[in-house]
Each structure stands twice: as structure tokens, then as C-alpha cells.
Amino acid sequence: MPKFAANLTLLFTEVPFLDRFAAARAAGFDAVECQFPYEYNPAEIRRRLDDNGLRMVLHNLHAGDWQAGERGLACDPRLHRQFRDSVKQALDYATLLDVPQLHCLAGVVPPGMDLRRVRESYLYNLEYAANMCRPRGIRLLIEPINTIDIPGYFLSRTEQALDIIAACDSDNVFLQSDIYHMHSMGEDVTALLRRALPHIRHVQLADAPGRNEPGTGEIDYPHVFALLEELGYDGWIGCEYRPLAGTVAGLQWRDGPAIGGVPPANRLNPAA
């Protein structure tokens, strides 16, 4: 059976963030993840985890100034100092919260900047962060994000991510595969999960289009879950979607013989 983690940034938004831990436990989750925990005292998050018998399995490094359009710091060579500060902050949180892996957002390509320079900055920062994470037993993850939701995002395709991992001078950089982003970019999800599995340490889901719960769009999630089981994936699957009609009501997809009895939809690769 898949192991699902509730993404507390997008799920249970009916209640304040710190109350979402109890809501996730009440809904049957054993683990949670979030995008950015930095507005909250890590000791208070630790208490909420312990009080509810939950594990936090993932959070992101800081993305920079979101309101100003920043979506990560790693690919911008002008932001190395800020990036290193974000690594320290993320490690402080992850260490206190026993988080085993951190996602490093690549960021948006600065206008007019040479892509070779952007790639060099990304590799340099990934190697630094991965080496800082290793002594604490924390894995560093990278995630391709579709360029519809974030135009100009540097890392947008799985093959590109595999190339970055191969180019890194570190054995502590791994892949976070988000089925929603893969499908949104027209990728062959089945083929790429098979190819990338040795590098995958975390999976996330949402249906497409809309980024809502499984069963609301085109992606055949019973097939995805069966494939991950066939491939021997035993990591967490983060539920990073926006519920259409309330979080608890939208969790019906988890129940039933096909992990929610989600009917097969169109196909995983719309271009196939």
C-alpha cells in the first residue's frame, strides 16, 4: 500500500496551520510535509508533531521573496549568500523536526542571463547544500516544476533533472517526482518513473488540470500507484493538491480497492 503524507500547505486549510497537524492525524495520516515552515517556531511544530504522533517527511528550502516573484535562490549567481543562509535555516528546522529530506527550489531564470551561467550557479549551490546536509543524514532533493504554473522556472523536465544529478559533484542529490508537474509538461509518466526510479526519493501527487485531488482530472492514479508498487518504490507520496470541496470530503479517493476506486482516466501522457 502506498504511504501518503498530507501536505499541510495545501490540505486542511479550513483551520490555521498549526491546527492542521491534529486534522491530518484525525483524517488517518501518519506523516505530513509542508512547503515553507519558516513563519512558525520550530519548537511549536515539533510539539504538534509529537502530540499527534506524526512524522514530517519533507519541507523546502526558503524560496526567497515570493511576493517579488522569487521561486527559489539556487540558480541565480547573484544570490549565493542568501542561498547559503537559506541552507542554514532549513537545516536548523529539519534537524529539530527530524525531517529526512529537503527540497531545493531551483528558481526562475533571471531575465537575459546566459543559461550556462545559471546552470553553473545551480550546480554550485546544490553541491554546497548537499554536502551540508550529509553530516546530518539529510538528503537533498530537486523537483522539476512545470512552466505553466511557474513561467521561466529553470528545472522543468525529468531528463533535465537527471542530467543535473549526474553532473553534481555529490552523492547526496536525489529526485522528487511530482506526477502533476510531469503530466503538465506532457511527459511520459510511466516511462520516466521506470527510468528515474533509482534516483527518486519522494513522490508527490495532484490531478491535472486543476491541481485538485485524484479522480478530478486526466491522470490514471490507480495505474500510477500500481506502477510504483511494481517498481518497489517504498517512499512517501505527498498529497500536494488543492481540494475541490473541503479536505476531508476530498479524501474519498484513498478508499476502496483501487486506492479510492479512482476510475481510469484518459492517459498519463496526453501526447501519446
UniProtKB/TrEMBL annotation:
Lineage: Bacteria, Pseudomonadati, Pseudomonadota, Betaproteobacteria, Burkholderiales
Name of one Pfam family that matches: AP_endonuc_2
Protein name, UniProt field: TIM barrel protein
GO molecular function: hydroxypyruvate isomerase activity
Keywords assigned: Isomerase
Keyword Cytoplasm listed: no
Domain Xylose isomerase-like TIM barrel, first and last residues per copy: 21-253
InterPro entries the UniProt entry points to: HPT_OtnI_isomerases, HyI-like, Sugar_Epim/Isomerase, Xyl_isomerase-like_sf, Xyl_isomerase-like_TIM-brl
Organism superkingdom: Bacteria
GO biological process, one term: glyoxylate metabolic process
Species in which this protein is naturally found: Pseudoduganella dura
Keyword Isomerase appears in the UniProt entry: yes
Active-site positions on this chain: 143 (proton donor/acceptor), 240 (proton donor/acceptor)
Family: Belongs to the hyi family.
